[in-house]
From TrEMBL:
<feature type="domain" description="GGDEF">
    <location>
        <begin position="187"/>
        <end position="320"/>
    </location>
</feature>
<dbReference type="InterPro" id="IPR035965">
    <property type="entry name" value="PAS-like_dom_sf"/>
</dbReference>
<dbReference type="GO" id="GO:0016301">
    <property type="term" value="F:kinase activity"/>
</dbReference>
<dbReference type="InterPro" id="IPR043128">
    <property type="entry name" value="Rev_trsase/Diguanyl_cyclase"/>
</dbReference>
<dbReference type="InterPro" id="IPR050469">
    <property type="entry name" value="Diguanylate_Cyclase"/>
</dbReference>
<dbReference type="InterPro" id="IPR000160">
    <property type="entry name" value="GGDEF_dom"/>
</dbReference>
<dbReference type="GO" id="GO:0052621">
    <property type="term" value="F:diguanylate cyclase activity"/>
</dbReference>
<dbReference type="InterPro" id="IPR013656">
    <property type="entry name" value="PAS_4"/>
</dbReference>
<keyword id="KW-0418">Kinase</keyword>
<dbReference type="Pfam" id="PF00990">
    <property type="entry name" value="GGDEF"/>
</dbReference>
<keyword id="KW-0808">Transferase</keyword>
<protein>
    <recommendedName>
        <fullName>diguanylate cyclase</fullName>
        <ecNumber>2.7.7.65</ecNumber>
    </recommendedName>
</protein>
<dbReference type="Pfam" id="PF08448">
    <property type="entry name" value="PAS_4"/>
</dbReference>
<dbReference type="InterPro" id="IPR029787">
    <property type="entry name" value="Nucleotide_cyclase"/>
</dbReference>
Amino acid sequence: MADDNTPENSGYHALATLLESIEVGLVVIDLDYRVKVWNGFMENHSGMTANRIQNQSLFEAFPDLPKTWLTRKVQSVVTLNTRTFTSWEQRPYLFRFRNTRPVTGTEEFMFQNLTISPLTGTGGQVEQVCLMIYDVTDVASGRRALEHANEQLERLSSTDRLTGLLNRGTWENLLDAEFERYRRYGHNTVLVMFDIDHFKQVNDTYGHLIGDEVIREVARITREALRQADRPGRYGGEEFGIILPETDIDGALVICERIRETLATTVIHTDDGDIRCTVSMGLVQLTDEPENYMQWLQQADDALYQAKEGGRNRSVAIRP
């Protein structure tokens, strides 16, 4: 009878205990992808015991595994007799385990890193493959949260906080880029500048908070009237600009009149009463005349001035 207290048996039990207790998934498969080892981590997260999955095909037990991808990875490990590693950034997970960590409860599934190692027999040939699955949900969640925060900061740095439109600096950069695009390709493009008529009276009568409500409503109506490719921005105070790419002056005039007419018939409900407002709009189609985007902007300002001088609540287009 074998002595359970021999160094060999003691070492075996210690190793078995270690494999069952480590917070890493350990799966050993043969070259036909039949499961030979399935440790406690895998039992806990899959709900499948080692006895149940023993000698089963891994792909039959888990039909949602990326079979083509994993097979290619395993075959490479077997052929080259060298381990390979993939991170959650390349593939979020191999096994679709639910995330059970309370700290990272916002993530639905466990993010995983994966190491695939060859296991050789006495003859030096690869006979089995070991998959080690590492739970990196904390790291992935933190990275994703940081990326989301950076995206929000970038968005906030480029948008006007009151209206959600592009702020002046970002919008002018796009205007400059559109000018250079015209210089290169010659596509039709129109610039619109407009502002709210008699806005000072709104501020003087109702106060700046109500004035802000009016500006927000003008921005909302403007945004809803535009196409996805159009670029509206708040230029400053009650003045706005719109870049209309791939648009001629007649098409731009239709868009501007839709905005102007909608605003003229809109009642803005505030705590201090109902307010109506109108806008004056100046449009200019880009030609070869301006030497830079600032001269193009000046042309649109001149058209806006003509709209105001002509009685306000109107659109004035400078045609090429």
